[in-house]
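Q: Got a minute? One more chain.
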Amino acid sequence: MKRARSVRKAIWALAAVLVLGGIGWAETGTISGKVRDKDTGEPLPGASVIVEGTKLRTVTEDDGSYRIEGIPAGTYSVTAKMVGYMPLTTKVTIGTGESAVLDFDMVSVAIWMKGIVVTATRTESPVEDVPASTILIAEEDATRVSAMDVDDVLRMYPGIDVERPNGFLGRGRVSLRGVGNEPGRTLILVDGAPMNKADTGSFNWNRVPLCDVQRIEIIKGPVSALYGSNAMGGVINIITKKPSEGFSAELRPLYGSLNTLGCDLVLLGKRDRLGLKLSASYLASDGYISEPPEERDEYTIKRDLKQSTVSCRMSYDLSESSTVSVGYSRFDDHRGEGKRYRHEEGVYRRWDTDAFDLEYRTRGKFPLEFKTKLYCNVEHYYWNREKMKKGKYTWYEVTVPRVDGGAMIQASFDTDFGGAEGVLTSGLDYRYGSVHGEDAYRIKKDRPSDLKITNRGKQQTFSFFVQECLKTSRMNILLGGRYDLIRSYDGRFEDPSGFLPSERYGEKRWKGFTPRLGLVYLPREGTRLWASVGSAFRAPILDDLYRNGIFRGRIYKANPELEPETITSAEVGVEHRIGKAFKVRLSAYYSVGRNYFYPVKVGKDPDTGRDLYQRQNIGKVKIYGLEPELSYSPTEGLRCFANATLNSSKIAEFRPRPELEGKYLEYTPKFKANVGILYADPKLFAVGLIWRYVGKVYVDPENTGKIDPYYVVDLKLSRQIGRYGEVSVSVKNLLDREYLEREDSLDPGRLVTFSVKLKY
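A: Always. Here it is, folded:
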């Protein structure tokens, strides 16, 4: 009897569980669907689908399908994520016991970013809304051409002057819109942080390897209204790769001419809220003899190279809309300069650099976006310098610690003026730079020496900026301005020998306001007209103010009386699509520079007998030019293009030296042209073929010396091997033409590089 009652209880208990379980099951629902590539329609296996605010998630199957069960009734945000694609979030309401079908058509990061620029307005803006000549270089465009450095990629675009006399063995210098090759007239950003050094105005282009570049944004024309000093010709923003959902790995060893050996590694991953990136790059080469034959002697050797870069970044999502990230990179190099007298390693230089940054950003309704960033670069420059003059040997070591850093904070807000939607962006910038250099003589004219010549200086900038971007259906208006306070102080030069006068320099302060106005008009689909006018300025660099010595191959005398140089520029442009295949663009610009810095001969250096220069303020410089462009894309994966730069940069007024009036700015070509074919078919191969022409340039302020025009053909071929592999051959200077980019240095000739890429 008792046993029967126990059995009945067990049956009732089991029934209750089944009924209650059925009731509980009926209170939940199901979401299913497919995740596809929006551009191709292909399924995306391995994509993550997440029900936000819960622990429910899954991964798509090989056919892109997914299914999530046991979802309580309610309204949810469902997000699809995958490496290489923009996250996509959709809201869905699940009723009791209901099922919902939710498909995701995802846009690749590369395609999305091709239409978005952040540098022009310091916020994300469609390219067609920007009243300026803008260039966006996606990762696949940068890797499809024959290039070993970031600045090498820029050569094929109009309005960009790139000088790298010794190829990848040397150092690059880049300027925009004919402003001259003085370092610092073009602002260089890495992930939005200024990189131009307060001491020299330059940026070390070797620091950022191509394998770590996600995209490059270039805004031509003065943008000091947003970024302050250095943005006279424009701004170049190198945006590096960031942690992304899932995991990816890329390994690329290479070998080539001049016994060049290298390897790149990039690891990217993100799980839940934590993202990590690690990239490493190594390059070494035996090099070549760069001196022209008539200048070689028994001390001439090959220029050689060893360099490495390690970069890491960690990001953490504090919420769905807030992220904090921290990054660090280390750059080491050893660049032989082609001379060896007595020292075992000869003449060589190092630019070892540590870089740090910390960033926080959040998105919402008010403000629309807020971000703040801290950054710091510490460069340990070293030059092992030896020379022989009239049989007397001199050896000294140059050590220059340089510290450059700063902070920025900005916020963006939605605005509405008379039906025109807009975004107001304002913020504060602070920049700091210092130098403490020392020339330590070990042997001077065959005698032991303990002479130490030192120079030092510091510079600070405090800035406030504001910008409004208004948008209607056919017109966009941009209006902005920036106010800067700059202070240079603690400048001194000391030479205990008395050969050069020791001096302590007084503090200098400057202030200025730089406005900018731009207009975009969209008369019809496929046509864009724009016009802009703005001003920019650049404060004197510490080297020009406080240092006597060698800079960029010349001997300079300090000029503590330098004043900031300024430029006012106007631009008009039109872009028009003809059908689906053709696109033409033409932009014209006119600029007037005042108080321009320019190297002027002031005598002879008493120690070497060489010409002695000094940076001086020129009264007026006039610059004008045209940039015609044509692009033809008849089928998917094929793009043919041609562009040209016609530029005139002349000294218009210089009362102390009237004989320089009417002369062209040195190292600024009057004509350049590029013609190229870029083709990629995953089932066949990819090819990048570029023909580049650079016209005559003058090599001195007096225009007495010149470099003849030259042209170069570069080629890159690559082929996909399976799902994870790629082999490529890159040929620079395919025709092996001999040419000069500097009057005292031959370029390396034909360079052939083989590489294998393994990607997971």
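A: The two ends are 68 Å apart (CA to CA).
Q: Perfect, thanks.
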